[in-house]
């Protein structure tokens, strides 16, 4: 019994101090940037990510227009929320029905985003939380 108590005290002392996430939607909400694209960095043009109150819809919004892979220029993209788990949200783009996964890091400071059915290693890079932005 003494060994178990000692282990628990040691484990509690050495465990990470960051709280484990309880709400994937709260973790995903905020401002984000990606260094791989100059028009989407935290410094130049971060995007916000938000959800409807009932968590059935989500919106990506950029401060300035960005160019999509298909050549369109947008400042906002809307998605239906199809499913959510501890660190994952499955989305369907309303404009064309394409499905995507948003996969958050355990600490909520970064995420990866890509099409459902593609290997996660092929996703569009790592988006990082913009820490100095509030609006």
Structure description:
The chain is mainly beta and 135 residues long. The chain has helices spanning 2-14, 24-28, and strands spanning 30-33, 47-51, 57-67, 73-84, 88-93, 99-104, 110-115, 126-129. It has an eight-stranded antiparallel β-barrel with strand order 1-2-3-4-5-6-7-8. The chain is globular and about 30 Å long. Strand 4 (73-84) and strand 5 (88-93) form a beta hairpin.
User: Helix share of residues?
Assistant: 10-25%
Low-confidence segments, given as residue ranges, are 3-21
Widest beta sheet: strand line-up: 1-2-3-4-5-6-7-8
CATH architecture: Beta Barrel
Assign the CATH topology: Lipocalin
The largest β sheet comes out as:
8 strands, antiparallel, barrel
Name the helix and strand elements from N-terminus to C-terminus, one letter apiece.
Answer: HHEEEEEEEE
Radius of gyration (CA) equals: 18 Å
Based on secondary structure, the structural category is mainly beta
Q: What share of the residues does DSSP label as strand, in percent?
A: 35-45%
Anisotropy-based shape: globular
Distance between the termini: 53 Å
**For the residues shown, what is the average pLDDT?**
83
- Tally of structural domains: 1
Count of distinct strands: 8
